[in-house]
Structure formats: structure tokens, C-alpha cells
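Q: C-alpha cells for this one, please.
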Amino acid sequence: LAPLKPFDPAHGSFSTSHDIALVLYEIAVQQVTGRIDFVSESRKKSVFFERGGAVDAYSSQVFDRIEEYLYREGKITRAQYQEVRVKGLRSPRRVGAYLVTAGAMKPEELFSSVRGHLVDVLLGLFEWEEGDYAYVDERPEEDDRVILDADPRALIMEGIRRKYLMPRLLRLVGAPSSLLVPKGSTPLDPELFGLSAEERRVLRLLDGTRSVEDLVFSTGLEAVRVYQILAALLAMDAAEVRVRGIAGVGADGSSASDGIDRQRIAEKVEQVRQLDYFQILGVARLATAYEIDRAFERTRHEFAAERFSEAVRRDLGDELAEIEQVLADARQVLRDDAVRDAYARHLP
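A: Here is the predicted structure, written as C-alpha cells:
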């Protein structure tokens, strides 16, 4: 076991100016060993780190319980879920071991499920845009430690990829006219960041001569994906903003980010017209009512009309209303187990 190593500073806050991704990267760089409590509003997560990597985590959110995770992943039935709740087992590994012993899970699924749950709890932190943290000199129980095979930088990249929406990314990176440059003389290793082959093109083109908008056009990637990669590089001190673009508002009510917004709206309209309700909300067919509500609120917030410029609302008001209505329909159908089952039976 690594000796306890406090985080410096031991207490602090995260916000739009000091993002949670930056805090987690600092924990990894400092090789912190111990417990860090993260608090945002009424939510709390306690994460145990060893040499900067997460090895155990607990959350006050029902959504983060391991039985919730296993049920969402289709690993256990509703009856088995209820049985675990009655047992009151706290440790994810003990819950997994109990389910294997009871014949509810395959032995080979135990460690992958426990690791997956730890990653899920950790990545949930990326939804929090502001809050506080505090270091505590405490280790996890030896039997509860889980060693992840992913580099902390890849986990940070995945957290940003899963949880950061465009308005937040714009605040972190800047308008499409922003100019970013690599930081440091050592070439960036895409393997450490967990980037796909097509995403690596952003690294190759990030040379200080191309704006964010140029990177989008040059790579052919969706704007949100380019922004996610850039936000991760900024958080992990691998890039810096040389020129921060300003999203101004024109006389016709347009803004510099309208092109990105129009593309996102067009893609979502295509989704609501062609995909099923599960795909539209981005949830599994066994998703809980809580998960469905959260996905609905997140997507509704992302496409709320008031988030867009006057010009976009004027030109695409009907499309935004269509998205809003289909999201509401999807939530109403999927929250009712009987209606959802009947709906799912008619899907391919």
C-alpha cells in the first residue's frame, strides 16, 4: 500500500473557473493517497485515491448504488435488485460477491462489474459544475480496493466526453474563433488520453495556427467532440488558450456560435424523427425512472430555446418546439413500466 499523501490544498472549491476535471488531474499529478470528499448542494461523494488513481468510492445519490448500476446494465433482475436492497450491504465488492454466491451473477462478471461501477461513480462527478472538496487521512478497507486499468487522463477525457454539454464547453474553451496551442515541448501521447483514431487528428492539427472553428472543419468531427478534446487538454495542462474568441451578438440577433448551435439542433431534429425514445434520451431499455428523469432534464436543458441566440430561435423555433415535445413524450412513455414494456415490444 502507498503511504498516505495529502492533497495540496487540502480544502478547496471547483467551479467554472477551476473545473472539476482540473481538480482530478491535480490529484493524479500529486499522486494523492487518501480520501477526498466532494460536495455539491445536497450531494456528496467520497473517493479513495491511491497514488492519484481512484480505488474506491461511495455516494449519497441513490443513482450511484451498485445495485442500481447492475440493474441498469442488465446484470440483475428487479427481484434481485430488491433482494440486495433488503440485505443492506454497503461495499460494492461485497454486493458483487453476494450476488455471485447467490447464483445471480457469473463469477467472471464480478470484477468487471465492480470496476465499471467505480468508474461510473467517478465519472458522475463531471456533472457537477461547482462545489467543494476536502482531503481526509483515511484509506479504504483492503477488501474494498479496486485497481482500474485506465490511466487517470483517459478517465478525465471520458468524463468530459460523457458529461460536458456545449454551453459548458464554450465557457471553458471559448468561442469558435479561439486559438489554442500545445503546452510543453513533449508531443502528446494520444494513448494516455484514450482518444480514438479520428479524434487524434485534433492533436496533430493543434499547432497554434488554427482556431477551434478551423479544427472542426479540418477534422470533419462534430463541433462538440472537438470542444471536448480541447477542454480535456486544457484541464490536464496539455494545451493553453493563446487567443480567446468572444461570442458577440450581431444586429440581427445572431452570435458567433450560431453555426455550432444550428448543427446541433439539426442533428437532434433528425434523431427525434428517426430514432426510438430510448435512443433519443440516451438511456438503456432497463433504465430506472430516476435515470430517465435525469436524461430528460439534461437533454431538455441543452435544447431549451432560451439557450440560443435570437436569430437561431427565430429561424429554428419550430424545430426546437418539436424537440421539446418529443422529449416530453419519451419521458412520459418510458417512466411507466407497463407502457415502456409495451412500447419496447414493438421495437426492432
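A few notes: The chain has 16 helices and seven strands. The mean pLDDT is 89.
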